[in-house]
């Protein structure tokens, strides 16, 4: 057999993106995946009843739609078909009041819906929207680099460095504007008072206007399948059911890219890892976990405000204060619930007239405490009668998520806390944090920049680094 050029451990979106980038450069690449199917956090299965398709991990994919790597690959030719709901995000406000606020695709329509906060929303997102591709180029990669778009990045940095709570209180005046902002901020999975949380909030708001909040028709798995098919088309191999536990499980290859946790990387490096690097990786911190609920419903969710059904993504959070409280310790009786209702727009995922409903709430790191009663009580506040439509529910706890992928330590779906420090030093402070001190070994998971989410950019940049270091290539993006 011909010697491999590269082995990729793990087939999450970052592992697959790394493998595609290497294969596009003409390298012989093999991916080793512990699960029976490629995809990592991007998989779908019939978790509840026959005929229902649920997303095991990621559900809504603005980052994937905007990813500079994915956008240059012909994934549509390999079966990827984006479903684009009319409205990116609906945020349920409080029962009995104006119901919901909508984050529309159009900046103007969103601003109009926000009334007195319209000008603030426009001023916040308008200038970034004008150069959104330049901004993403600069932030979906290690931040300790010379920016290609310094003005846009400076504008983003000024707004993004403070906490989301501070920005929400100082920039917006209306309950609607503040609540919409807080619902986006809660995606950071950090208390909203944490410095730097405004940055991801800005990105998520910006993406709604730039590319919408789409998802793959048929299930998130369709994205992983398209990536795998493209990789195979390029000559890459994907072996499933193979867990790499130590260096002896690795075939011989010039480079090894690890789509896993820093702890797994250390195991693979063994004694070759210098003590200082080992200590630095051991200091890497994880955020809280999530508890996830996959429902089969007999009908659509009965939202008080029917406009919520114009969006697949629903922030069931209530007011700014409610969300700040919920995300402070992740133990609120009224948790912020992030929900996705795909079948309103993609009927292929459930039997005729019936629906899937994907939801999660944050929990303390590693917690398996049952929060289904709190989550359903919260859903009932905004969609009375929700419980009566439940045909089946599948619960996934934070420890189960951690067992599902080593990247999701204690149920942290971002591969490590997105604190300001760990946005810069992910997993260690370095200009090229993918490179390890052991020649030929690279970390390429969401524990490297730009962090969590389905965008493949960690794998893409890690692969470009390996190409430059070991194969004398300049750029094969
Ligand atoms: C419930 C949930 C909801 C989410 N929602 C969204 C969302 O809506 N939108 C979004 O953009 N993101 C979302 N995310 C986050 C997103 O899924 C992750 O950030 C992303 O999958 C991380 O990609 P990755 O390649 O770094 O790691 P993973 O996707 O975790 O993949 C790592 C893969 O490597 C394999 N692996 C690791 N170590 C080994 C080993 N030693 N041997 C063999 N195989 C190994 C694992 O089995 C796994 O398949 C969600 C995640 C979860 C869990």
Ligand roster: flavin-adenine dinucleotide
CATH fold name of the domain at 4-80 and 216-284 and 407-471, please?
FAD/NAD(P)-binding domain
Largest sheet: 7 strands, mixed
Shape: globular
Q: For the terminal residues, how far apart are their CA atoms? A: 28 Å
Give the helix tally: 18
CATH class of the domain at 4-80 and 216-284 and 407-471: Alpha Beta
CATH 2nd-level architecture of the domain at 4-80 and 216-284 and 407-471: 3-Layer(bba) Sandwich
In spatial order, strands of the major sheet run 7-6-12-13-14-11-15
Computed Rg: 21 Å
Count every beta strand, where a strand is a DSSP E run of 2 or more residues.
Answer: 16
Query: Which structural class do the helices and strands define?
Result: alpha/beta
Look at the structure and name the CATH superfamily of the domain at 4-80 and 216-284 and 407-471.
FAD/NAD(P)-binding domain
Give a summary of the structure in a few sentences.
The chain is of the alpha/beta class.
Give the secondary structure arrangement, pairings included.
Layout: E1 4-9, H1 13-24, E2 29-33, E3 44-45, E4 54-55, H2 62-66, H3 68-71, E5 82-83, E6 87-92, E7 100-103, H4 107-113, H5 118-130, H6 132-139, H7 150-160, H8 164-171, H9 175-185, H10 197-210, E8 215-216, H11 221-233, E9 237-240, E10 253-258, H12 262-269, H13 275-282, E11 289-297, E12 311-316, H14 320-329, E13 337-340, E14 355-363, H15 372-382, E15 390-396, H16 398-404, H17 420-424, E16 441-443, H18 457-471
Parallel strand pairs: 1-2, 1-10, 2-9, 6-12, 10-16
Antiparallel strand pairs: 3-4, 5-8, 6-7, 11-14, 11-15, 12-13, 13-14
């Amino acid at each position: 057999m011909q010697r491999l050029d590269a082995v990729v451990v793990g087939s999450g979106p970052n592992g697959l993106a790394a493998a595609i980038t290497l294969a596009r450069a003409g390298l012989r690449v093999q991916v080793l995946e512990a699960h029976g199917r490629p995809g990592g956090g991007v998989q779908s299965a019939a978790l509840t009843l026959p005929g229902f398709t649920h997303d095991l991990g990621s559900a809504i994919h603005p980052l994937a739609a905007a990813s500079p790597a994915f956008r240059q690959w012909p994934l549509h030719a390999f079966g990827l078909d984006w479903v684009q709901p009319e409205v990116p995000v609906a945020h349920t406000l409080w029962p009995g009041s104006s119901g919901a606020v909508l984050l529309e695709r159009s900046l103007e329509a969103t601003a109009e819906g926000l009334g007195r906060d319209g000008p603030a929303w426009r001023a916040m997102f308008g200038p970034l929207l004008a150069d959104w591709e330049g901004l993403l180029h600069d932030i979906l990669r290690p931040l300790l680099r010379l920016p290609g778009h310094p003005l846009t990045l400076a504008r983003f940095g000024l707004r993004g460095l403070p906490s989301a709570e501070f920005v929400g209180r100082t920039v917006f005046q209306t309950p609607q504007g503040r609540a919409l902002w807080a619902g986006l901020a809660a995606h950071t999975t950090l208390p909203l008072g944490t410095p730097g949380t405004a940055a991801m909030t800005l990105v998520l708001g910006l993406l709604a206007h730039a590319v919408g909040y789409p998802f793959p028709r048929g299930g998130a798995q369709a994205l992983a399948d398209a990536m795998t098919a493209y990789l195979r088309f390029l000559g890459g191999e994907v072996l499933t059911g193979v867990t790499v536990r130590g260096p002896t499980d690795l075939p011989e290859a010039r480079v090894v890219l690890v789509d896993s946790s820093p702890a797994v990387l250390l195991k693979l490096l063994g004694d070759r890892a210098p003590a200082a690097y080992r200590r630095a990786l051991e200091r890497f911190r994880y955020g809280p976990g999530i508890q996830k609920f996959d429902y089969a419903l007999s009908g659509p969710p009965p939202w008080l405000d029917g406009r919520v059904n114009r969006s697949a993504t629903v922030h069931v959070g209530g007011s700014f204060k409610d969300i700040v409280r919920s995300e402070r310790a992740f133990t609120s009786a009224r948790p912020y619930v992030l929900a996705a209702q795909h079948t309103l727009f993609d009927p292929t995922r459930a039997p005729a007239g019936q629906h899937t409903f994907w939801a999660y709430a944050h929990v303390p790191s590693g917690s398996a405490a049952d929060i289904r009663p709190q989550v359903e009580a919260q859903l009932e506040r905004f969609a009375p009668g929700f419980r009566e439509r439940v045909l089946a529910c599948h619960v996934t706890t934070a420890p189960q998520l951690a067992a599902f992928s080593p990247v999701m330590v204690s149920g942290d779906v971002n591969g490590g806390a997105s604190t300001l420090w760990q946005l810069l030093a992910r997993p260690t402070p370095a200009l090229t944090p993918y490179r390890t001190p052991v020649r030929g070994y690279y970390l390429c998971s969401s524990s490297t920049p730009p962090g969590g989410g389905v965008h493949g950019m960690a794998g893409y940049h890690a692969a470009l680094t390996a190409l430059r270091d070991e194969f004398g290539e300049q750029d094969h993006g």
